[in-house]
Write a structure and sequence with these properties.
It is found in: Apical cell membrane. The chain has 689 residues and is of the alpha/beta class. It has 28 helices and 11 strands. The protein folds into 2 domains: 410 residues, no CATH class; 146 residues, Transcription Regulator spoIIAA. Helix 26 links the parallel strand 9 and strand 10.
């Protein structure tokens, strides 16, 4: 039987687009109000804030995150190749802007190790191209002729006013100029993606790609911090293969290790790891996590200051961190052009991590977010702070988990965290002058535990899905051994290739009937299936399109043990020989048979079926090549007196077949060629003569 299809009214897309355009261009007070409420979600939820119910959890989580943010901000400045003050600016502005524009109640937006690394790689490259020394301990340039002394003709002097002192600097100002230009461009990309609703781009970053990318980048971060751990002076490697080159330089200069830094690093790592492990083990008993990083930084700073570790043992320290805010400055347009391409992967990674975390916690706590608004939020978390000497931001999983575990209810906690950072910016920053860089490196390395533990999951990941494991390994290797940007691109391309290959060579099977039922399954996978006499049932578990056409035909011919083209050619050749013998007047055929026996010989013994049923339940779509392939097998098998029946086709496949002329001009034979179940097709084939 044939089910009657519904008649769909054709939609005039032009009229629909014009109506939407008219609606979007109209301006009414209510529409303006809705626009503002949507663009600043804080206007919706803040008036409904339940102060007595939420305030304690928000204040506690805000204070804890603020305490964690300060040492992390100072530490991650090493990754970004910038001064600690800029990391503090980034943490402050990101929390305030996301409070106004974000739709997630729980994510913590601010500095993130992976984003800091990507910024730092671009900053280092541009500093190197400009002729600056990448050595962190090089004396800072000062004076009016600092840039000229470096013999630079392709850079610009940046004028900054810090606490009322007018200073013209070279390397530091050029570095933050690059970082702000990169951040501004990343934010512009994110806002444009939001305007054009390009959030679907994140779909191409699978979990395996993101995990592999994060793990590979973590290896790069770890490698970049080793020189601080042992206190050696080696150049910051740039370009492809940075990880390998850095390790070669480390082993070449291992004899120059600073014993003071080595001992300090060993003590700090032991303390931090022990505290983290104890915190994980007893987290259900702790109301909030232990501020281990802050305690380590305070103690290490006091020891370094009163022990004079910099003067006596030449231990590298953070140096002066100014207080207050630097006057805002528009990012340099010329620098934007230099980093425009680098900003694209930065924008995508920042957005994907933020949206994925937002969706994860929204699902956990039963509320909804708007992915497009999240793109606007993280975009403006980059655009606006770039005017205030900040660099790129993203949501961070570790801090978000801490927020939720300490009772966070809304983004009020982000404002509290920003106030803690502001306190450090205004009053406490100079106190970190004597803090050793090796302590900051320890904090960074210990924070990578989660990403590095992904190596432990490889066996279970492999057992679950071998292809996803291969994607993870390839992405991780490319991110670590080549570069983070190339690694991300390689991961995306390789994961797509895996999908293409899996559709090019999908599973194929001949089906047998489950005894005493109307159901059919793979004959090689299940026991006690009965073969249907005179009928072959073929299943193809993928869309049928140009890339897998040949595989479809080869699999069909192999499983049915019959190539209709070869069989037709053999028959023609046989008939030709018979005609030649008859012309000569020989009534015996080439095989010694009589003419009457020749007809029987034309039917080969290996053909043991009279109907082929194609199970189309797994064929999601057909392209032109796919339709032509089905028409081809229909014709070829018909020449051998074998009927081809299609079963379980979805509506889009049926429409493609109709448009391709598979059922003829008037669809008269459709009832004898198309069936809604395999069993119906089998019953029809059995009834055929």
């Amino acid at each position: 039987f044939l089910m009657e299809r519904k008649t769909h009214v054709k939609i005039n897309r032009k009229e629909v687009m014009l109506a939407k355009l008219r609606k979007s261009c109209s301006c009414t007070p209510q529409k303006m109000k809705n626009f503002l409420m949507d663009f600043f979600p804080v206007l919706r939820w803040l008036p409904k804030y339940r102060c007595k119910e939420y305030i304690w959890g928000d204040v506690m989580s805000g204070l804890v995150i603020g305490i964690i943010l300060v040492p992390q901000a100072i530490a991650y400045s090493l990754l970004a190749g910038l001064k600690p003050i800029y990391s503090l600016y980034t943490s402050f502005f990101a929390n305030i802007i996301y409070f106004l524009m974000g739709t997630s109640r729980h994510v913590s937006v601010g500095i993130f190790s992976l984003i800091s690394l990507m910024v730092g790689q671009v900053v280092d490259r541009e500093l190197l191209l400009a002729g600056f020394d990448l050595n962190d301990d090089a004396p800072p340039a000062s004076g009016d002729d600092s840039l000229q002394n470096d013999n630079l003709s392709n850079t610009t002097a940046f004028n900054l006013t810090i606490v009322g002192i007018n200073a013209e600097c070279g390397k530091e100002c050029y570095a933050i100029g690059i970082a702000t230009a990169l951040t501004f461009m990343a934010g512009v990309y994110q806002v444009l993606m939001g305007i054009f609703r390009l959030g679907f781009v994140s779909m191409y970053l699978s979990e395996s790609v993101l995990d592999g990318f994060a793990t590979g980048a973590s290896l790069t971060i770890l490698t970049a911090q080793v020189k601080y751990l042992i206190g050696i002076k080696i150049p910051r490697s740039q370009g492809h293969g940075m990880l390998v080159i850095t390790w070669i330089n480390i082993f070449r200069n291992i004899s120059q290790a600073n014993l003071c830094d080595v001992i300090t690093s060993a003590i700090c790592i032991v303390v931090l790891v022990t505290a983290k492990e104890l915190g994980d083990r007893y987290k259900h008993k702790l109301k909030f996590p232990l501020p281990t990083e802050l305690v380590v930084i305070v103690v290490a700073t006091l020891v370094s200051h009163y022990g004079k570790l910099n003067e006596v043992y030449a231990s590298s320290v953070s140096g002066a961190i100014p207080t207050g805010f630097i006057p805002p400055k528009v990012p340099e347009f010329n620098l934007m052009l230099r980093v425009a391409l680098d900003a694209l992967p930065l924008a995508i990674v920042s957005f994907v991590f933020t949206v994925s975390l937002s969706e994860m916690f929204a699902k956990k706590y039963a509320y909804t977010i708007r992915a497009n608004q999240e793109m606007f939020a993280v975009g403006f978390c980059n655009i606006i702070p770039s005017f205030f000497h900040s660099f790129a931001t993203s949501a961070a999983l570790a801090k978000t988990l801490v927020k939720t575990s300490t009772g966070c209810q809304t983004q009020i906690s982000g404002v509290i965290s920003a106030m803690v950072v502001l306190l450090v910016l205004l009053f406490l920053a100079p106190l970190f002058y004597s803090l050793q860089k090796c302590v900051l490196a320890c904090i960074i390395i210990v924070s990578l535990r989660g990403a590095l533990r992904k190596f432990q999951d490889v066996p279970s990941r492999y057992r679950m899905n071998k292809v996803d494991t291969l994607v993870w390994v390839v992405t991780m290797s490319a991110s670590a051994l080549v570069s983070t940007e190339i690694g991300l691109l390689v991961g995306i391309v390789f994961s797509m290739l895996c999908i293409i290959v899996r559709t090019q060579r999908p599973r194929t099977a001949l089906l047998g009937q489950i005894q005493d039922t109307s159901f059919y399954e793979d004959d090689l996978e299940y026991e006690n299936l009965s073969t249907v006499p005179k009928v072959k049932i073929f299943r193809f578990e993928a869309p049928l399109y140009y890339a897998n056409r040949n595989y479809f035909l080869k699999s069909l011919y192999r499983l049915t043990n019959l190539d209709p083209n070869l069989e037709a050619a053999r028959r023609k050749k046989y008939e030709k020989k018979e005609k030649q013998h008859l012309k000569k007047g020989n009534h015996r055929t080439a095989n010694g048979l009589g003419i009457g026996e020749t007809t029987l010989q034309l039917v080969p013994k290996q053909i043991d079926f009279q109907a082929l049923v194609v199970d189309c339940s797994s064929i999601s779509f057909l392209d032109t090549t796919g339709v032509n392939t089905l028409k081809e097998i229909l014709k070829d098998y018909k020449n051998l007196n074998i009927s081809v029946l299609l079963a379980c086709c979805n509506p889009s496949v049926i429409d493609s077949l109709k448009r391709g002329g598979y059922f003829g001009k008037d669809f008269g034979c459709m009832q004898e060629m198309l069936f809604y179940s395999i069993h119906n097709a089998v019953l029809f084939a059995k009834d055929q003569k």
